[in-house]
């Protein structure tokens, strides 16, 4: 029996949106009464008025989080008890899968097929994984003399602030809140003002799962108001930030200006994807290169936006790549056939189009795309765009575009390609395609990036860390290593005899 197709437009029309903050277990308006509009990039329509939280609301959220941490209503639970609640949280997310996916699509423009098949289940899996992990982390006993017993224990840091971006609102939030909550911390989450709705709904679901009031709070608002107030707050013990390098630098400054809170940043990228002539599967390289840059409308910090292709195969590579591009034309995000949706807002649309103009002005060859699409919809759409004959000195090869724009750079010497790949302020991800295992290992060692893919791109798992080097930030999301960010090591030295 064929599954009945979901009418996502009808479901969207029937949805009720609540943009109020979530503090101490309750939905509340901003204390000032101020709001900002949540506009859908799908068609430009207004979804909700969101609470425009500022320092007063941040104070209230941090106060609630501190009280919850100090009375140990969450931190004092046995790890197995926290595990059960977090697993229930993940289960409830999947029960609300369609609702959460629709919120994500309407709020930031990604195709519903990916919101439902990637974002929601991946976020739920992250919550579940850390829930399952937390009662399997052991403390240590140091190898001291018989006259002492030295215990090394991990304790939650306290109140964790999480500031997340708009490109993967739910998934980026889960990467922060899951390990922080699993470790016993209280959390104040500030979603991007461009995509706050799914985070606010997550807080309600967390409360339903059994996470006590005050432990998980959400304050929507602007970065220069709610975000800076969180980063400067004297009673926040740790901050996890994902976003631009420019704002990441401010976060580190705010941490130093306030209470020297721990500050972890996952920032921008300009990832290099190197395809050598001895690539073992050229079709696979083309599919991965094209699929990864245009996935999520190119709004991914790890997108392989710089494609280095050995000259002897470049013409054939481009022929195969261009043949794929019509499949990535932007479409209605509420249509399950759409693979590339809307740019998040008019500001980002203008930014992307500006980079395309810059590429043409600097002499890059526009091979495909370059134009705004679906203007009649009222939303914000850009065609999949590919430039050839790009030089590393060009703006489109140096700066993070955060849109569906690919820059192709030819090379004849792999060492030159590696040198150009590393000649960037960023160091998030990279890739090399070659059938020579020695070349693969040597190149992966030479590339300065937090993750290097070999004969693939954007393949990962919750079990491996994600993060970068240089101005792509510090610290790692995912894997057991993320727990290190949200815990403190304590030594307890006991004299014997």
Any overview of this molecule?
Helix content is 38%, strand content 20%. The chain has 497 residues and is an alpha/beta fold. The strands form 6 sheets. It has a 7-stranded mixed β-sheet with strand order 14-17-18-13-12-19-20, with helices on both faces. Strands 9-8-7-10-11 form a 5-stranded parallel β-sheet, with helices on both faces. Strands 5-6-21 form a 3-stranded antiparallel β-sheet, with no helix packed on it. Helix 5 runs parallel beside helix 6 (169-182) and helix 10 crosses helix 11 (311-324). The longest helix is centred in the first third of the chain and has 22 residues, at 112-133.
Q: Based on CA inertia axes, which overall geometry fits? A: globular
Tell me the number of helical segments per DSSP (H or I, 4 or more residues long).
15
Main sheet: which strands, in order across?
14-17-18-13-12-19-20
| Mean of all residue-level pLDDT scores | 97
Rg over alpha carbons = 23 Å
Major sheet details = 7 strands, mixed
**Which structural class do you get from the secondary structure elements?**
alpha/beta
Span from first to last CA? 75 Å
